[in-house]
Structure formats: C-alpha cells, structure tokens
Amino acid sequence: MPVLRAFAVALLVGACAGPSDGDGAEGDAASVASLAALGVEHADYLDSVADGELELVEPGRDDVWREIRGGGRVLRLEAPPERIASRTLATDEILLEIAEPDRIVLLSPFAGDPAFSPSADAARRLGRVGGFSTEEILAVSPDLVFAAGFNSQEALAQLEAADVPVLVLDDHESLAAIESNIRVVGFAIGRDREAERLVEEMRTRLEEARERAGARTSGLRVVHYSGGVVLGRRTVFDDAIRYLGAVNLAGENGLVGWPRISAEQVVLWNPDVIFTDSYVGDDAAVGVPDGTRAAGLGNVVSLDGRDMAAISHHVAGLVDRLADALVRAAERIEAAGGGDDAAAGTE
C-alpha cells in the first residue's frame, strides 16, 4: 500500500482563552452553535476558522494523487488512504455515510454516543469507536487522520511529528461550510461521487424544510437562549434560521458566536419564539424567561442535543425541526389574533 506524504500540516488553535466579551463586532468573534454542545470553547473556534477555505487539486504529477491546500497547509496524498481515522464528530458521521467500512480504523468517542450523534448505531456496529489520545490513534497506524482546527494543538502536533498525514477542517459555521466539508472528505478519500450524493440528499431535505415553512414563518422573531447563552451570527443556528426566512434576534442585534446575556435582555427583545436545547427533545430547558410573547403563546421549543451537535449532513434534521417549530409558532400567533399584543402576559 502506497504511503501518503504530508509535506506540511500547519496546526491552528492555541490554549483556551475563554469566551469573547460579545461586543458584536463581526470580525472579532466566530463560533458555531453545535460546537457549544460539544464543549468547544468560543475562543478556540475563533482562532481556527479564519482560513477555513480549502483548495482541492489533482496534480497528476510526481506520484501525487491529490493535494489539499489552505490555511497555510499543503497536504499531498500519493494514493487513496486505506486506514482512515477521525477526531471529530462531523467527519465521523460523514465517513460512516460515504467511506467503505473496512477503511475506517478509528472514530472519535462522540461517534458512538446517541446523545450526540444520529449515527451512533452505525458507529457501534462498526466497532471502532475510540478515544482522543495520540497513542490510541497511532496504535491503529492511520494513513490519514481527519481533525478540526479546534482540536488540541498539542495532540495534532504529536501526530505531525509521527509523520501521520492530518487533514484539518476549520470552518463549521454555516450550511454552505458543511456542504464544503462533505466534499473535502470525499475528495480526500476518493469517494467524490458518494460525497456529492450526500450533499444532494442534504440539499433536498433543506429545500423541503424551507418549502414547508413558506411565507408563514417569514419575519418571525426568534432567539436561542439556554443557560444564559444566546446563539448569534456565524453559527449554524443563525444560518438555518435565516435560511428559513425568520429573524435571529441575537444576530440582528450584532451578537456573534455564543455570548452570555441576561434574561432581562431576552425579555426586552420580546421574541415570537424561544428555542432552548435539551437532551430530551420534548422538555423545555429550565431558565427560559417569562414575560415574553413566546412564553405567553407557548412558543418555547426545546431542541434535541443531537440536532444542536450537528455539523455534518445531519444538520438537515435540525433544519427540519426548526421549520416545523416555526410553522407551529406561526399558527399559535395567528390563532391568538396576530399582532404584538396577542400573547398573554406581554404589554
């Protein structure tokens, strides 16, 4: 089996610096909604996403099969990898969908956890769910490791030092970025057609969800508020809400990523719908403020933790459920007579 050569893998992300102060400057913070569910620090993601776009090249020279460039990195592959490992939930789920099972030698711990992944059953059947330690990864002798910019710099540097090729995906903050990542994974393992099929299936579900939402949900004012944190611009949640024609109040008010705000601020915004997240999809999370139009109308919706952790094709499930929740919210508003004073308990 030919050996893959990584001529340069520059690794991003420094030590955790804690969340930004949420001053709303677009260029000063970046995040992705689902990464918060996975415990990724706001500052780590901020550092990793700056140069997220990758260029895919088929040189056909010097025994190089394919090349992937971007973010100061160049990864050259001599042949399709035969022993693939993943350190991220996103690439776990994509690989389970498009790669031949015998080529996957290790998945991240999140892959087999049904609280995080809709692919958990498939991961458990494969039986190659592992940990994050460098030793465990090296023990399976991978010829390609998928990682994310927010992974530990030290761990990725250890893999690089051991001459293990690493492909780092930096950007997970939008529906378009997720599509791009699927294509990158397919390109890197020689499963381009399967990746394109997965993208098309995801797009079909997204378009169907938007059609279901239609004009009724256009302009609905929503906020995701859980544990004192809102989801602003440059998050998957924000992109999905805008895709469905509604308004994410945190983003509209200049907030980026997942800053912490007061319950009083949410009351002042007076949203039509409040989303929270829970690992029990039908239970509204504790801490949602009363005194809002959303609370008065019963438009408080708890999203399943697996939806909030979706940064792969499974994001279509999040968009599906957002669309259905927005339609139900619009129906309640219409039943209450519409208008700003329709909800009980609001002025």
3D structure, described in words:
The protein is of the alpha/beta class and 347 residues long. The protein has two domains: 5-202, Rossmann fold (3-Layer(aba) Sandwich); 213-335, 3-Layer(aba) Sandwich (Rossmann fold), CATH 3.40.50. Helices cover 37% and strands 15% of the residues. It is built from 14 helices and 13 strands. The chain has helices at 33-37, 42-48, 89-98, 120-126, 134-139, 153-161, 175-189, 192-213, 236-243, 249-252, 263-269, 293-297, 305-308, 315-335, and strands at residues 5-8, 55-57, 66-70, 73-77, 84-86, 104-106, 144-148, 166-169, 221-226, 229-230, 247-248, 273-278, 300-304. The strands form three sheets. Strands 9, 10, 11, 12 and 13 form a five-stranded mixed β-sheet that branches. A four-stranded antiparallel β-sheet has the order 1-4-3-2, covered by helices on one side. The protein has a four-stranded parallel β-sheet with strand order 6-5-7-8, sandwiched between helices. Helix 7 (175-189) runs antiparallel to helix 8 and helix 9 crosses helix 14. It is elongated. Mean pLDDT is 80; it is low at 1-33, 279-285 and 341-347.
